[in-house]
Amino acid sequence: MSSTPAAPADAADRRAVKPVICYPNDTLPAPDLALYSQAREGAAKTGEVLVTPRDAACFEVPAGHFFRITSVEGPQVGDLNLWNKNDLSERFYSGKTRALHGTHITTGERMWTSFPHLRPMATIVADTLGWYGIDEFGGSVHDVIGTRCDPYTGNLLAGSQYHHCCHSNLTRALADHLGISPAEAEPHVHDVLNVFMCTGFTRDTGQYFMKASPVRPGDYLEFFAEIDLLGSLSACPGGDCSAEHSSDTAACYPLLVEVFAPGEGALGDWRSPPRNGYDRSHGRS
Ligand SMILES: [Zn+2]
How far is the CA of 56 from the centre of ligand 1 (A)? Predict the structure, then answer.
């Protein structure tokens, strides 16, 4: 056991140093929310999928279309994975999205893709839980700080063999969608956007916490697809995540995913964002 080292004489001064934002994001390319909103007004629904509780389902969204995730029947949290439909190696990058936007995301903020692409893949255009803000515990909704509930951590902490964690749900859904085995699908599953989940870090120990989601049936989170997307959404076995998330104990409800196509020409000369402009030489010629 290591003991806590003695604090230096100027400890208070060192702690009093003011923080600076790591990535000021005022130079991020801004989404044209007015254009998206105009395009959404004339958009027509093209499909939907109802995600079964404690399971996941895949869906595809062409670039320039919208998709909406809605709570139905009861409070339920969703774990969302997104890929470039044409290249699964380009996928949602939770860590960089967190570094750019903060621990939780809402309207006007974006889900960014992995290196070397690093471009927006989806922009949040509506969030009926946008009123929640940050509560007295430091909790908020739609986080990019969690990973996804998974059977490995359950086994590590409790020796369990539980098969309906979001990680396994996402793995099975992707395998079924692509016609590949779970073993082939699993490496594509990645850290999620925790849709509707209410989370934060405790101030005293810095631990990841969850609490009952404020989501109610009718609440939704809606996105604009910046590139051709393959999505997978798991209706977490934690339900509203008020207590447990790796068992069949919690009450769970379905989640609805709907896709909408804008009218012809509604997006004007909008185009998918290009891949990141870094030359990838890494200092070698
Ligand atoms: Zn989960």
Answer: 10
Peptide bond connecting 116 to the previous residue in cis, omega within 30 degrees of 0: yes
Q: If you measure from the C-alpha of residue 238 to the centroid of ligand 1, how many angstroms do you get, rounded to a whole number?
A: 6
Cα 268 to middle of ligand 1, angstroms: 39
d(CA 64, CA 263): 10
Per-residue pLDDT of 52-67, as tens digits, reads 999 999 999 999 999 9
Alpha-carbon distance 113 to 110, whole Å?
Answer: 10
pTM score above 0.90: yes
Structure tokens at 4: 């806590």
Question: What is the C-alpha separation between 200 and 134, in angstroms, rounded?
Answer: 9
pLDDT at 80 over 70: yes
What's the token pair of residue 202?
A: 């405790």
Tens-place pLDDT, residues 226-257: 999 999 999 999 998 888 776 778 899 999 99
CA–CA distance, 274 with 285 (Å, rounded to integer): 24
Give the Å distance between the CA of 216 and the centre of ligand 1: 18
**From the CA of 31, how far away is ligand 1's center (Å)?**
30
What is the DSSP annotation of 128-167? TTTT----TTS-EEEESS-----HHHHHHHH----S-SHH
Q: What angle do CA 59, 241, 245 make, to 5 degrees?
A: 80
The chain-wide mean pLDDT, for the chain, equals 95
Ligand 1: centre distance to CA 234 (Å): 7
Distance 197 CA to ligand 1 centre (A): 10
Reading the block at residue 90, the tokens are 């380009």
* Consecutive H or E run containing 155: helix 151-158
Asked whether 255 and 70 are in contact (CB, 8 A), the reply is yes
* Mean predicted confidence (pLDDT) in 185-213: 95
Residue 89 structure tokens = 């190696």
